[in-house]
Amino acid sequence: MDVSSIWFRLFRCIFLAALVLRGSAAHAAETWVRLAGLEVAVWTPTTDAPPKQPVIVFSHGFHGCATQTRFLMEALAADGFLVFAPNHRDATCGGGEASWLEKATTPFGKPGSWSEASYRDRGEDVRKLVAAIGKDAVYGPRADLTRLGLAGHSLGGYTVLGLAGAWPVWNFAGVKAALALSPYAQPFLAHGTLGGLAAPVMYQGGTADFGITPALVKPQGAYDRSPAPKYLVVFDQASHFAWTDFGKNAHEQITAYSLAFFDHYVKGEPASTTLTQTMSGVTKLRYASELGNSDGGRK
Prior knowledge:
The protein has 8 helices and 10 strands. The chain is 30% helix and 21% strand. The chain has helices spanning 3-22, 70-78, 120-135, 155-166, 186-191, 213-217, 222-225, 251-267, and strands spanning 30-35, 38-43, 53-59, 82-86, 143-153, 175-181, 201-206, 230-235, 282-289, 292-293. The model is unreliable at 1-5 and 14-28 (pLDDT under 50). It has one domain (3-293): Rossmann fold (3-Layer(aba) Sandwich).
């Protein structure tokens, strides 16, 4: 079975699990709105927050949906971020109308065949959404778009890496940080474009994430080829779905490193020691930034 077939079967699991989640009770801080022609889930800070709040935009995985990673979106909102997650064209849950039978427009098993045109519509979704947030009567006055972070899982990780500069023509000026959660980074490795990243990046992977994490951690993999500031965290026994509500492993650790990363690079707060400390349940932590270099000077 080739890689593309494996991915297809995995994302079928996302769809089936999403059917269960779609019937779950609504979360208090979660609202659905239509912005830029997109169905968008929004999480707002649940505690007292300043009038202008930093913004995170989340891009879901292939055949996932905006609400696939509620655990992290809710944590970001509780931390004072205004969080937006659009349903892309390939969403199959959370009101998405795509079919899980639909295959990727470019095969996942052939990363060299991907180009800046591959899923560019996802990047445009994020651009249009950010523009619409700034003009919206409800969210515009609240959103501090000078403090903008992007997060994405799987194909969403590909999306945010592209916007952060891995596809130079996608480069979205003003992005303060990119959080790539088990990202499909293989096309950027095939084309040698990760050196174009123009924002701090944190890669997250797992020891049971067999289709993605090896491309992040191997010599001259995604982490090695990315410019500083950069971080890599690998969670023990975390599979590809650890970053969704369907997976249960490492949620606490995923949340801790994600908040520390965004607090520092998006909010501009002093760096938490979490960024340079290996928590329980973490098998690998690498970083090269203003905080130091875990590889003893090696980039």
